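Here we describe the complex-level prediction in full. Unlike the single-chain runs in Section 2.1, the four entities below were treated as one system.
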Amino acid sequence: MNDELMTIREMCEAFEVTPRTLRFYESKELLSPIREGQKRLFTRRDRARLKLILRGKRFGFSLEEIRQLLDLYHVGDQQLTQYTRTIELARKRLAEMERQHEELTSAISELKAQLVEGERELARMRKSASVSSAA
Amino acid sequence: MNDELMTIREMCEAFEVTPRTLRFYESKELLSPIREGQKRLFTRRDRARLKLILRGKRFGFSLEEIRQLLDLYHVGDQQLTQYTRTIELARKRLAEMERQHEELTSAISELKAQLVEGERELARMRKSASVSSAA
DNA sequence: CGTTACATTTACGTAAACGTCAAGCTCTGT
DNA sequence: ACAGAGCTTGACGTTTACGTAAATGTAACG
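The structure predicted for the assembly as a whole is:
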């Protein structure tokens, strides 16, 4: 209800995930909702993180990788060396993403080529079918 | 040795897979090498199929999807409708891949932006560190 | 006060695609 | 004949990201 705090149910609807997922992410320290009694209340920070988590997942990052990358987004009182390591990690991920990107690019053009050939074959099949039905 | 028949070891080297993988694919009915005694001998047909399997995997098809596609391909020489369906499936997959590609593209630029900011932050941290050590 | 409706924790289950033993054939070389 | 290499078939292990069920708690409704 509140703009500031959301229940688990509200979160689920807003982000199209299950409660199990949110609890699971909490157990993995990706989220850290506050507790009112034993119920969870998700903050704006949790929502921001969840958004990033889901985006990370869409292109194949593991939750563990995402957890490490999330540190990049909340850099208040980090130690310098720690922060440097985080940035290095992000660079590695970026390199991997770019590799994936290239692979995907070539896979797409390969598949496109296959499709063109497949359609040509299909045309041949139709043609011979119509010939034999005309005979 | 023979161009016609290959042992499991030769197959592994030729395609850069492990024996376990080939046996696994056989158990999933993706391959069906002939047996000489208890050893496997892979035919030209197996090689063609394996090539398709590996390509399918690069496109992101699951083994189960690949199995179905191979089956359709097998019968599909005669059946026009099934071949059409195969092509439809490939088109869907292509669309999905293109969506992934776009997401990856934007994710990359986002991460790059984050890195730029992260490095700026890092510079600030170093600066304040040197100031405080100078004080 | 009882029922209904969610919430919670704990813990085992699942699917994909193999990896990794274990234990036993079989062929080769010496 | 014996060692070693390589092949075989189970069968259990691994990882990731949750699903699902059981037992229990809590809060509001009527």
